[in-house]
Write the structure tokens for this entry.
Amino acid sequence: MPDIGAPLPLGDSLGGLAADALRCLLAADGDASLSKAVTDNRHPVVLLIGPEGGLAAQERSFAGANGFAPYRMGPRVMRTETAGLAALALLQAMAGDFAA
């Protein structure tokens, strides 16, 4: 089950992250797809999803300096409210959590 915490300022939210976590910034202009980034179930995955319109340049820079890499989920840009749910569904499907 995913841990979903209360909204926090970006800097405050980074303190409790696992050192071995795959840190994924969901971004329409990401260099790689999220499905290609997650290749095993041994490491926790942390998703960073910005507001509508995306993160500001300084926020993206801060996230990058803290180990987050930009990944995309496909050609469509999703609303903030749905991007997290879609990403969780993708990760759960890849982990084999859904029965056919």
